[in-house]
Amino acid sequence: MQTDPATGAIREMFDAHESVLRETRERLTAPIAAAAEAVVSAYRKGRKVLLFGNGGSFTDALHIEGELTNRFHTDHEGLPAIALGAGQASLTATANDYSYDELFARLVKAYGKQGDVAIGLTTSGNSENVVRGLERARGLGLRTIAFTGRTGGRAAEHAELLLNVPSDETPRIQEMHILAAHAICALVEESLFPDAARP
User: Fold this and answer.
1) Quick one: pLDDT at residue 4?
2) Who contacts 51 (Cβ-Cβ below 8 Å, separation ≥6)?
3) SS3 for 98?
């Protein structure tokens, strides 16, 4: 029986996902736990989380913001998190008056305080505005976490914690990024709200 080309392509994607998933689990379990602990520590000190990225990574930043400010698994009070770049006025003003490359660095300066956590998402690790955002965050005393692909790129230079998915394919990297983010959200809830009930 001949396999339909579309079915074969879908199976290949699932196989690729499974392969990257296994390797990510082996390599990044400890760094993901460390990232969760950094977020927990910041929240216990009354700090917040800033998230930023471009394109699909921007929507991942928004996704994570929603999980933290609303809830993940359990009912509890919201936690402060901001996906930078969601404000159209600040985004277009910065791109027009300065440079899109400066967007996240300027927003980190506007919102970030020492002890906050800055999470930059860039599959290549080389998105200029994300790299500059992490660099500015580190200079201001924020804890920095980079979600990247295999090499970590230039973002690795400014990340206290590096979650570099062992892949060079953007879709597979993004799939692992959101899984890692979900793991962080789950650990944050378990640490901060151990008695909270599931709805």
Assistant:
1) 83
2) 61, 62, 64, 65, 81, 82, 83, 84, 118, 119, 120, 121
3) coil
CA distance 192 to 76: 9
Model confidence pLDDT, tens digit, residues 25-82:
999 999 999 999 999 999 999 999 999 999 999 999 999 999 999 999 999 999 999 9
Which tokens hold the place of 179? 């899984």
* Per-residue model confidence (pLDDT) at position 3: 66
Question: Would you kindly state where each structural domain of the chain is located, as residue ranges?
Answer: 8-192
What span, in angstroms and rounded, lies between the C-alpha atoms of 116 and 93?
A: 25
112 burial via Cβ count (<10 Å: 0-12, 13-18, 19+): buried
What is the distance between the alpha carbons of residues 32 and 39, in angstroms, rounded to a whole number? 11
Residue 98 φ/ψ, nearest 5 degrees = -125, -95
- Identify whether the C-beta of residue 123 lies closer than 8 Å to the C-beta of residue 58: no
Q: Copy the structure tokens of residue 191.
A: 């640490």
**Looking up tokens 């990574």, which residue turns up?**
57
Q: State the CATH class of domain 8-192.
A: alpha beta
Helix, strand, coil share of the chain (percent; to 5): 60, 10, 30
- Spatial separation of the C-alpha atoms in residues 55 and 22, rounded to whole Å: 26
Q: How far apart are CA 184 and CA 147, in angstroms?
A: 12
